Description:
Blueprint: E1 5-10, H1 14-25, E2 30-33, E3 45-48, E4 51-54, H2 67-75, E5 85-87, E6 92-96, E7 99-101, H3 109-112, H4 118-133, H5 151-155, H6 160-175, H7 184-194, E8 201-203, H8 209-215, E9 220-221, E10 228-232, E11 235-239, E12 245-252, H9 256-262, H10 268-276, E13 278-289, E14 303-305, E15 314-319, H11 320-323, E16 333-339, H12 341-347, H13 352-363, E17 374-388, H14 391-402, E18 408-410, H15 421-441
Parallel strand pairs: 1-2, 1-12, 2-9, 6-14, 12-18
Antiparallel strand pairs: 3-4, 5-8, 6-7, 10-11, 11-12, 13-16, 13-17, 14-15, 15-16
Helix pairs in contact: 1-8, 1-15, 2-15, 10-14
Amino acid sequence: xxxxxxxxxxxxxxxxxxxxxxxxxxxxxxxxxxxxxxxxxxxxxxxxxxxxxxxxxxxxxxxxxxxxxxxxxxxxxxxxxxxxxxxxxxxxxxxxxxxxxxxxxxxxxxxxxxxxxxxxxxxxxxxxxxxxxxxxxxxxxxxxxxxxxxxxxxxxxxxxxxxxxxxxxxxxxxxxxxxxxxxxxxxxxxxxxxxxxxxxxxxxxxxxxxxxxxxxxxxxxxxxxxxxxxxxxxxxxxxxxxxxxxxxxxxxxxxxxxxxxxxxxxxxxxxxxxxxxxxxxxxxxxxxxxxxxxxxxxxxxxxxxxxxxxxxxxxxxxxxxxxxxxxxxxxxxxxxxxxxxxxxxxxxxxxxxxxxxxxxxxxxxxxxxxxxxxxxxxxxxxxxxxxxxxxxxxxxxxxxxxxxxxxxxxxxxxxxxxxxxxxxxxxxxxxxxxxxxxxxxxxxxxxxxxxxxx
Length: 454
């Protein structure tokens, strides 16, 4: 690198790339450093033999729920291709009584049941009315009237099926959250804003579509891990086996525990919040099949929730070939198995063969004969999978948000305790604004020329 870089961004997931995009549009020079060999982070898609294999399970609600994400989609021109972002038919079902019950998360589910008894459906409506009347701000869950109450506290007055058959499996399957330990406010905000699952969408060309499109317009170095970050009066130094980088400012778009390890020099408010941000591991197995298969009762649907009462280790089964027909070659199938929080904890460090065998065996009851049609297996594991929004993090967030701009900032879904792409993308605007304010305040400060990056 022969010229000064205004900002170095660590991490080429949606948060880091969206931050870099915003800074570049503001006229700043930006370089993104990514340890992996491809962009996308936890939203990466593998492309193998005509299959598009998502490493995660991101879904895309409408713009009213994900405004930052849809603004970025429009800014990148992805909305001009009518098929690039498409509706998912039968997005969510629930397993009960030996088959999948469709219409989970849709108004129609209140009539059909969607795996809930009549009394539980009445209480679901009561809960929805309550949340609609006092919906917390998704960007500021610490301001919620729910305070530090846990998700279990929120659900206690309602029919137990809401926790056992719907909210609990949702929180566990999509966020990796334990209702007894997770703060209610972030989940309530997300539930209230996400709306009906009937309007959920996906990216036709893989869940990394946004990341790849952003990366094509930016200076991104993959295979460039960062091992340490230090801020001084003349800039920020980022150490790496690939060679050090110096910039006027840096954004750490990595999980909170990784950011804390890379940059131990943050303020007291930063350190307190980073320390309070716990994570749930994520474990997912993708099965490439010789034919399309799905849980019993699913007809063209995508994801089936599996309550802990039905299986303690398996939480979600997705028929990825139903997500979009272009995900697999004609006549083939792709099914993914998402471990429950208990399953992820038990199997995270197990060999791939054991993980695949145990979860596939669990899924046989839902998808009879599944193991006989598996051609190949991919295991995806993330130790820092999803930010677990505990009451301690909620309590430390206000001071973190109020801290003054500095040379090192942060981006990621953990910023607002929202484990989704919207949380990541919305954090980018905040991080970019803070970095621009810092750069403007230090415009007259000389910055050393970075050493050549090999």
